[in-house]
Prior knowledge:
By secondary structure, this protein is of the alpha+beta class. The protein has helices spanning 28-37, 92-97, 118-127, 129-155, 159-171, 189-196, 200-206, 220-229; strands at 39-43, 48-50, 58-64, 67-72, 78-84, 89-90, 104-107, 111-117, 175-177, 180-185, 217-218, 243-248. Strands 1-8-3-6 form a 4-stranded antiparallel beta sheet. The chain has a 4-stranded antiparallel beta sheet with strand order 2-7-4-5. A 4-stranded mixed beta sheet has the order 9-10-12-11. β4 (67-72) and β5 form a beta hairpin. α3 packs across α4 (129-155).
Amino acid sequence: MSMSGLSCVESCLSCRLRSHNFFCNLSQDSLEAFNKIKHAAVFPEHAVVLVEGQSPCGIFILCQGRAKLSTTSRDGKTLIVRIAEPGEVLGLHAVITGGRYELTVETMQPCQLNYVGREDMLRFLNEHSDAALHATQHLARDCSDAYGVVRVIGLSHSVSERFARFLLDTAADGEIKNGTVHVRLAMTHEEISQLVGTSRETRAKTKGTSPVTLGRALPWRQLRRLLRLSSRFPTPISTGTYHVLATAHY
């Protein structure tokens, strides 16, 4: 048990965290080989794991926790491209291409990450075809996520529309209780602003006209307004007669 309270799983061979969408959901031979080259560690909240623009030294696999992937402009504006979930490979594109890391990775809570050096990773992918296929699938998902960011940021007409899209995407993973979708946003207002591509000040101005107030249930008539705002993009949730309850950190 680490100081953060997170139990570090040292061996991939006895890991119970792995699911079908994890990169390390490999054949036994490949898993044994991978276990020999990875180094497990627990990182505290707000730890910077990778830095945009640095030369690649290796990849990290997120085993437990969540991390934000962001890019920063020259004038200091930050955009969160997406939130990484357990099972994802971080820094894979740079390691394979030899280019620099394209995004900064920062933990949002205590996380376990498994590190593999660049040369070891390239050799591992070359020798194990199932791992190479998983790497290709992860890169394809990263590309698809990037297209999604371009659609939402580039084609949205307003901050409210992007915020509506964000809430509906988040509600897809919510818990339904008594006809209400409960969603806990483990993000600050600043992080939410960076994720929808605006400033915190703009979000504060939008709050009066936004179809949702954080911390309160969202009635059905307002949920329909959310759907109209985000109608440019397909929504993964079935609305039914549910309400949405979103809570966020301040």
